[in-house]
Input
Amino acid sequence: MLWLYLLAAVTVLVISLRRVVQRQAPLSDELYSSKVAVEHVHSGVGWVRGDGMVGSVNQSLSDSIGAKPGELLDHDWYLMFPRQERFRVKEAYTTMLLSGIASVDTLIERGDGTHRPVNLRLVAVHDHKMRLVGHHCMVHDESHARSLQQQIHALSEALADAGYELVPPEERQEQVRK
Output
């Protein structure tokens, strides 16, 4: 009779174990896909711990700064920005602490001392007791877009100097409709 109870207990344990393993497989896949997505995103993403030190960065952020990923780890995250921009970044950080998210257009300092325009977005991360455990630092490099804007501006001025009138696309569509 005792062996029937033991057999029933083992059966229940095996079924329970199978269910736990089946539930963990999708979680592992989701974690892996999230990690791969962050690593290959075109904008820079970094994790800053609660103590203000860089915990991790993806390859894109390392490329934007001109450093190897390991070089940034365990350094103060404010060092990514030029000295004259750090006050604005600290203001954005304070806003993030109050509202959970903040964004600011600023400059990022590369390893060779040059600066690049970026849009910085900070997202606070809290634990289950609402204690700040760190924040995500997302950097969108806008240097290419800015250079294209400068080229458009220069071409527009050249056309205006040559006597051509520039018509915005919206007005052009209205003229075609008439």
About this structure: The helical segments are 2-40, 59-65, 69-72, 86-99, 143-161, 169-177.
